[in-house]
From TrEMBL:
A Pfam family hit: ABC_tran
Domain ABC transporter: 5-225
Superkingdom per UniProt: Bacteria
Keywords: ATP-binding, Nucleotide-binding, Transport
InterPro entries: AAA+_ATPase, ABC_transporter-like_ATP-bd, ABC_transporter-like_CS, ABC_transpr_LolD-like, MacB-like_ATP-bd, P-loop_NTPase
Source organism: Acrocarpospora macrocephala
Name the record gives this protein: ABC transporter ATP-binding protein
Record's keyword annotation contains Transport: yes
GO cellular component: membrane protein complex; plasma membrane
């Protein structure tokens, strides 16, 4: 199966002194997998996700996504690459408050220059599938946590990324909404979306992931299918 993510001996040292946030991490993810990264707070989960997203750079090792060595890209090319290939969902949604739901979802498509008609069609379809079509003209402040996370997922998917990353996507919503988000992510993976989740949430990991990687103090300490 095509390999989508390849981390080789990745290290990340934020500060010269002290232990590294990541140390010798090698992870391979094939297309259509759903991988969950689990581990205690501070174990390096978000750091790992940020490196794969090209939001930050490793201090050792290499990160390849879709066959591209991210270390070889300038900041500008990295941003272009990320918009085209990677969707990201954060714990606290990171929606823009002064844009409507529709315009939040459309933003990444506008940034990549997707023709307006195509983008609007995709946005309508996603909002519909995620059950928030009636909220298209609302502003994020008027939505519940679960609705906001669904908007964030729609925004992450608008450019049809090969890889969807999610950092604690159920971390800031109630249990019932968490279950809905879990179901949604599982359905996306069943339809072929490659997924990498970082989570504390065992229910999320167990129902979504085809593979779980355990991280502890910046190292991979276990892996199970
Ligand atoms: N921007 C940063 N600057 C300095 N240290 C950081 C930064 N981000 C994370 N760290 C440190 O790196 C370690 C791993 O953090 P993180 O990846 O956020 O862990 P997790 O997501 O598993 O809770 C922690 O010790 C954290 O304090
Ligand atoms: Mg984190």
């Amino acid at each position: 199966m095509a390999e989508l993510v390849r981390l080789q001996a990745v290290g990340k040292q934020y500060e010269a002194a002290g232990p590294p946030a990541l140390d010798g991490v090698s992870v391979h993810i094939a297309a259509r997998e759903a991988v969950a990264i689990m581990g205690p707070s501070g174990s390096g989960k978000s750091t790992l996700l940020h490196l794969i997203a090209g939001l930050d750079r490793p201090t050792a090792g290499t990160v390849e996504v879709a066959g591209v060595d991210l270390g070889g890209l300038s900041e500008k090319r990295l941003a272009v690459f990320r918009r085209a290939h990677i969707g990201i969902v954060f714990q606290f949604f990171h929606l823009l408050d002064d844009l409507t739901v529709r315009d939040n979802v459309l933003l990444p498509a506008r940034l990549t220059g997707t023709p307006g008609r195509t983008a609007r069609g995709r946005a309508e379809h996603l909002l519909d599938e995620l059950g928030i079509a009636t909220k298209a003209d609302a502003y994020p402040a008027r939505l519940s946590g679960g609705e906001r996370q669904r908007v964030a997922i729609a925004r992450a998917l608008i450019n049809r990324p090969e890889l969807l990353l999610a950092d604690e996507p159920t971390g800031a919503v109630d249990a019932r909404t968490g279950a809905q988000v879990t179901q949604l992510l599982r359905d996306l993976n069943r339809d072929g979306q490659t997924l990498l989740l970082v989570t504390h949430d065992r229910a999320l990991a167990e129902s979504c992931a085809t593979r779980v990687i355990e991280l502890s103090d910046g190292r991979v300490t276990g892996e199970r299918s």
